[in-house]
Design a protein that fits this description.
The complex is a heterodimer of chains A (345) and B (391). Chain A is α/β, with parallel strands linked by helices and 345 residues long. Chain A has 2 domains: 25-245 and 322-340, P-loop containing nucleotide triphosphate hydrolases (Rossmann fold), CATH 3.40.50; 251-299, no CATH class. Helix content of chain A is 49%, strand content 14%. Chain A has helices at 36-48, 64-69, 97-109, 112-121, 123-129, 134-148, 168-175, 177-182, 189-201, 216-231, 251-259, 264-273, 282-311, 329-341; strands at 25-30, 53-58, 79-83, 89-94, 160-164, 206-212, 236-244, 317-321. In chain A, strands 3-4-2-5-1-6-7-8 form an 8-stranded mixed β-sheet, sandwiched between helices. In chain A, helix 6 (134-148) packs across helix 9 and helix 12 crosses helix 13. Chain A is elongated and about 80 Å long. The relative contact order of chain A is 0.16. In chain B, strands 3-4-2-5-1-6-7-8 form an 8-stranded mixed β-sheet, with helices on both faces. Chain B has helices spanning 19-24, 41-54, 68-73, 104-114, 118-126, 128-136, 140-159, 177-189, 192-198, 205-227, 229-246, 249-259, 275-290, 313-326, 330-359, 378-388; strands at 30-34, 58-63, 84-85, 96-101, 164-168, 265-271, 295-303, 365-369. Chain B has 16 helices and 8 strands. Chain B starts with 18 loop residues before the first helix and ends with a helix. By secondary structure, chain B is α/β, with parallel strands linked by helices. Chain B has 2 domains: 6-184 and 252-311 and 352-388, P-loop containing nucleotide triphosphate hydrolases (Rossmann fold, 3-Layer(aba) Sandwich), CATH 3.40.50.300; 191-247, no CATH class. Chains A and B meet through helix 4, helix 5, helix 9, helix 10 and helix 12 of A and helix 6, helix 9, helix 10, helix 11 and helix 14 of B.
Chain lengths: 345, 391
C-alpha cells in the first residue's frame, strides 16, 4: 500500500516557483458543470510535477476523483493515484465527515469507543449533518491537518494540498467556519478547533481558485463569489477558465463573420481548392461553413465580453481549452502541462 | 435554423418525447424538472411553463435559484415565495403564467408558525439550531421545495388559479438529493438521538430507563466535552420544542414525499450531453422506476447541432491541410477546422447519448440545441421550448 507515513520520504520542501510560492492549501471551487473536479486534479498534477508531493482531497462524498483517475472508490485513506511528470506524486483522499469526526474524537479526546456509541445513537449523523458548521470544521480541519502534518519536524508530508471544494454558491460559508460555528459555540473545543482552522484558511497560505466557463451565468457566479470571499477576508486565488473553445478564425475573419461581410466567392474558391470528395456540393458546403463561422464569431464575441468582465476582477486568469476527446488521464496531464506553462507552478 | 433538429443528432432508436402532448395533457398537473447542477433545469422549467401557458394552461413555475437576468425577464426580483404574473405572455389561448422563487427559510418559518402558538414559535425561530437547520442543513432546500410544491398544489385545487405547476429542483450536484433529502431530514429529526435528548426522563420501565440513562450520560458527556454545555442546552431546548411541535416529523416528510407518486405528477430528467450529467440522469431514471414515480422522459440540453454531417471531420481536416500546404485560402481552412471541431464534438455527444439510450431504451427524449448565448428573455425561452417540442 502506498500511504505516505511519517517514516516515508518527506515532501521536498524546496521553495516552489510559480505564481503561488507561499500557498500550501489550494481550494478549488466553481459553479456546477464547470469541471471543478477535473481542474482540481490537473492543478494537483501541475503542482506535483518536478518532484513535489501533493494531496488531492474531495469533501462531497461523490468519488469524483476515483472516476477521474479510473480507480476503485477511494477509502478514507491517502492513496497514490498518479505520478506527475519528473517524479512528483499525487495522493488522493475522499474525506468522509463521519470518519473525520471519529478520528477527531480519538485524536483529541482519545474517545473512539464513545464515538462508536455515539454513532449508534445517531449522534455522529447529527454532528455531521445538522450541527451548524461542525461538518465544515471537520472537512476543512482535515485539510489543515494535512497542511500542518510533519511541519513541526521541519519535514512537511505534502508540498501542497488541493481541495475539490463545494461549489461557488456555498464556498464562503464552507470556509468561513468560525462565523458559522461562532453563532453556536462561543467557547469550547469546537470553537478553538475552528479558530485554528481559520488561522490557516484566512492566511496567505491558502488560495481559493474559482473555475468558470466563459458564459454569462458561471461568470456572474464567479464574480459574486470573489466579492463574497473578499468581504469575508478569505484569500481569493486565480480564476481558471475551463473548456475554452478559442477562435478558429483570424480576428479579421471573425469580424467579417459577425458583420455578415465574409467574401462568399473567396470561401467558395477555398472549398474548391480543398478538393473535397465530389459528392459534396460546393455551394452547400460554402453555405454551411459560412453559417458555422457566423455562429462561432457570435460565440467568440460573447466569450470576449465575459473575459472582460473577469479581467475587471483583477485576479490572475488561467485558461484551459475544451478537450475534444473528453476527459481521460491523457487530457489531465495535458491540462496540468498547460497550467504550468501559464505559471501556476 | 436549417439542418437537422437537435434530436436527429442523437440516437435514431431513442423514442421521441412529445413535449406538447405532455404539457397539453389536462391529467398532468405537476411536472418536476430534476437533474444535476449546471444542466439548464431552470431554463427548461421556465421555457416549458411559457409554452404551456401560451398553449392554454394556467401555469405556475417555481424556480429555486434562477440566473439574475432570467429571473428579471420573468419579473422575479425577489425571493419571496409569492407567485407573480409574468408579463409578455401571449394569453390568447386562455392560459397564464405565474412564477415564483423559493425562499426556503421563510417556507420553514411558516411551517413552524402555522403549527404552534406564537410564543412557542418564537422560541423555535430564535434557537440557533433551528436557524442552522433552516438555512444550512444540506437537505432543507430540497425539503422546502417539496413542501412548497404541496402548498401550491393545494392552492391550485382550492382556487383553481393554476392547472399546471412546473417545479425546478435545487442545484444539488446529484439529482437524487431531491428525493433523499426529505427522508434524511425526517428520519433525523425523528431519530433516536432526538428522542433521547428530548425526553431523558421518559423510559420504558425501570430497566429501560437505566439503559437510556446510561447511553444519555455517554452522549451528553461527550457532547459537552466536544461542543460545550451551552450548546447542548440550546440543542435540548430545540429538540424538545420541535418534537412537541410535530410529534412525528418523519410522517410529515413521508406524506410530502408520497405526493410525488401522485398519478397527476410527471418527472422530467434534465441533462447535458456530458458524461457526468448523463450518469446522474441514469441513476435518477433507475431510482424513479424503483419508487414508482412516473418519468415523462429525458430533456437533453445544449446539444451540438451538426449541419452537413456528410462532410466528416477527417475530410474537412484533410481539406484544410491541403489549403495550408498550398499556402492559400486561410479563411476557408479555418472554417473547415471549425466544422471538424463541431462534427467531433457532436459525435462525442452522440456516443454519450447512445450509451444512455442503450441502458434505458424506453425512456423518450427531447433535445434543445446549444445556443451561442445564454437565455435571458421570453423569446429565448420560446425558442428553447420550440426546439424541445421539435418545431
Amino acid at each position: 500500500m502506498s500511504t505516505p507515513t511519517s517514516a516515508g520520504r518527506p515532501a521536498t520542501g524546496k521553495p516552489r516557483g510559480g505564481d503561488w510560492p507561499k500557498v500550501r492549501l489550494h481550494v478549488v471551487s466553481g459553479k456546477g458543470g464547470t469541471g471543478k473536479t477535473t481542474v482540481a486534479a490537473a492543478l494537483a498534477l501541475a503542482l506535483a510535477s518536478g518532484g513535489g508531493r501533493v494531496l488531492l482531497m474531495e469533501v462531497e462524498g461523490r468519488q469524483g476523483i476515483a472516476q477521474l483517475f479510473d480507480t476503485p472508490p477511494l477509502p478514507y485513506e491517502e492513496r497514490l493515484v498518479a505520478v506527475a511528470p519528473d517524479g512528483g506524486e499525487v495522493f488522493a483522499l475522499a474525506v468522509d465527515p463521519e470518519a473525520a469526526l471519529l478520528e477527531y474524537l480519538e485524536m483529541f479526546y482519545n474517545m473512539r469507543r464513545a464515538g462508536t456509541a455515539l454513532r449508534k445513537l445517531g449522534a455522529v449523523d447529527f454532528a455531521t449533518t445538522i450541527a451548524p458548521g461542525v461538518r465544515d470544521v471537520l472537512l476543512t480541519g482535515k485539510a489543515i491537518e494535512a497542511v500542518k502534518r510533519g511541519e513541526r519536524a521541519g519535514k512537511p508530508t505534502y508540498d501542497a494540498i488541493v481541495m475539490d471544494a463545494p461549489p461557488t454558491g456555498r464556498i464562503t460559508r464552507f470556509l468561513n467556519v468560525t462565523s458559522e460555528v461562532g453563532g453556536l459555540a462561543k467557547v469550547g473545543p469546537i470553537k478553538s478547533q475552528s479558530d485554528s482552522v481559520m488561522g490557516v484558511i484566512s492566511s496567505p497560505r491558502t488560495a481559493v481558485h474559482l473555475v468558470t466557463l466563459l458564459e454569462e451565468m458561471p461568470v456572474q457566479e464567479t464574480l459574486d463569489g470573489i466579492e463574497e470571499l473578499r468581504d469575508n477576508n478569505l484569500p481569493v486565488g486565480a480564476v481558471i477558465v475551463n473548456m475554452e473553445r478559442g477562435p478558429r478564425l483570424t480576428p479579421e475573419g471573425l469580424r467579417e463573420a459577425l458583420d455578415g461581410t465574409l467574401d462568399v466567392d473567396e470561401v467558395r474558391a477555398g472549398v474548391e481548392a480543398a478538393e473535397l470528395p465530389r459528392k459534396l456540393n460546393v455551394n452547400t458546403v460554402t453555405k454551411v461553413l459560412m453559417t458555422e463561422a457566423a455562429e462561432h464569431a457570435e460565440r467568440v464575441q460573447l466569450e470576449q465580453t465575459e473575459r472582460d468582465r473577469l479581467n475587471a476582477a483583477e485576479r490572475p486568469i488561467y485558461e484551459l481549452p475544451e478537450m475534444n476527446g473528453g476527459i481521460d488521464l491523457g487530457a489531465l496531464y495535458a491540462m496540468a502541462r498547460m497550467l504550468r506553462e501559464q505559471g501556476v507552478a | 435554423m436549417a439542418g437537422p433538429t437537435p434530436l436527429a443528432a442523437l440516437s435514431e432508436s431513442t423514442p421521441v418525447l412529445d413535449i406538447d402532448a405532455l404539457i397539453d395533457d389536462p391529467g398532468v398537473k405537476v411536472i418536476v424538472c430534476c437533474g444535476s447542477g449546471g444542466v439548464g433545469k431552470t431554463t427548461t422549467a421556465a421555457s416549458l411553463g411559457l409554452r404551456a401557458a401560451e398553449r392554454g394552461r394556467k401555469v405556475c413555475v417555481m424556480t429555486i435559484d434562477p440566473a439574475r437576468r432570467l429571473a428579471q425577464s420573468m419579473g422575479l426580483s425577489q425571493l419571496d415565495n409569492t407567485p407573480r404574473s409574468v408579463a409578455g405572455v401571449d394569453e390568447a389561448n386562455g392560459g397564464s403564467l405565474d412564477a415564483m422563487m423559493l425562499d426556503m427559510k421563510r417556507t420553514f418559518d411558516e411551517i413552524v408558525e402555522s403549527h404552534s402558538d406564537a410564543g412557542r414559535a418564537q422560541a423555535i425561530l430564535e434557537n440557533p439550531f433551528y436557524q442552522a437547520l433552516s438555512t444550512s442543513f444540506a437537505g432543507t432546500q430540497e425539503y422546502m421545495a417539496m413542501e412548497k410544491l404541496g402548498q401550491l398544489r393545494s392552492a391550485a385545487e382550492t382556487t383553481g388559479e393554476w392547472d399546471l405547476i412546473i417545479v425546478d429542483t435545487p442545484p444539488s450536484r446529484s439529482a437524487l438529493d431531491f428525493l433523499d433529502a426529505p427522508k434524511r431530514l425526517g428520519s433525523f429529526l425523528d431519530g433516536r438521538l432526538m428522542k433521547l435528548l428530548s425526553a431523558p426522563a421518559r423510559g420504558a420501565g425501570k430497566f429501560g430507563a437505566k439503559v437510556v440513562g446510561a447511553s444519555l450520560s455517554v452522549v451528553t458527556g461527550t457532547l459537552t466535552k466536544v461542543i460545550g454545555a451551552q450548546v447542548l442546552k440550546d440543542l435540548q431546548t430545540f429538540v424538545s420544542s420541535f418534537d412537541a411541535l410535530f410529534g412525528g416529523f418523519r410522517q410529515r416528510a413521508e406524506a410530502t414525499y408520497a405526493q410525488l407518486q401522485a398519478p397527476d405528477t410527471r418527472f422530467l430528467v434534465v441533462a447535458a450531453p456530458e458524461r457526468d450529467a448523463l450518469r446522474e440522469a441514469s441513476y435518477f431514471v433507475e431510482r424513479l422506476a424503483g419508487e414508482d414515480m412516473p418519468l415523462a422522459g429525458l430533456i437533453l440540453n445544449r446539444v451540438q447541432e451538426v449541419p452537413l454531417p456528410s462532410l466528416s471531420a477527417e475530410t474537412a481536416l484533410a481539406g484544410a491541410d491541403r489549403l495550408d500546404e498550398n499556402g492559400e485560402h486561410p479563411l476557408t481552412a479555418g472554417m473547415l477546422r471549425l466544422h471538424a471541431d463541431r462534427v467531433q464534438n457532436g459525435q462525442r455527444q452522440r456516443r454519450l447519448a447512445e450509451r444512455f439510450s442503450t441502458a434505458h431504451p424506453r425512456v423518450p427524449a427531447a433535445a434543445a440545441p446549444a445556443l451561442a448565448g445564454d437565455v435571458h428573455d421570453l423569446d429565448g425561452l420560446r425558442e428553447v421550448a420550440a426546439a424541445l417540442a421539435n418545431q
